[in-house]
Specification:
Layout lengths: L1 E3 L11 H4 L4 H14 L6 E3 L3 H11 L5 E5 L8 H8 L4 E6 L21 E4 L4 H13 L9
Parallel strand pairs: 1-2, 1-3, 3-4, 4-5
Helix pairs in contact: 2-5, 3-4
Bound molecules: 1,3,4-trihydroxy-5-OXO-cyclohexanecarboxylic acid (DQA).
Amino acid sequence: MLLSGPNLDLLGRRQPHIYGRQTLAEHVERAAVVAASFGLTVEHLQSASEHELVKAVHDARGHAACLVVNAGALTHYSWSLADALASFDGVAVELHLSNPVAREPWRHVSVLAPVVAGTVAGFGGLGYELAVEAAAKLAGFARSGEA
Ligand code: DQA
């Protein structure tokens, strides 16, 4: 499952010098191609609502093997999303297009980082591929033909 937080629906038009010109749909497609190479499918939810994202994490329990989460600004203050992720029984990976620690000080803290397996940040759209690959491999999936 791929979760996208507030303002990510504007990707492609939103501060392209920071976030690039690709749309969220294009990033999701990129993630889906990598997931498919592991025999996995991607379910995607974008929401500006903390409530909907927390509920999606709850619904992922026992249903999704992996969660890849770009929570947008919620990354930096959503304790409820952190608590939800801490209760997830699969592999969760935090994802950012930009490198938040190289930006404004308020972006330097991620309240999600302590409860995820790892963070992929600063690689632009490539991060969607890297995060899915990391999550799938950590969850024990292999690409067909790979050990
Ligand atoms: C972001 C980084 C966050 O700090 C920011 O609030 C976003 C996007 C990223 O993908 O680089 O909305 O998560």
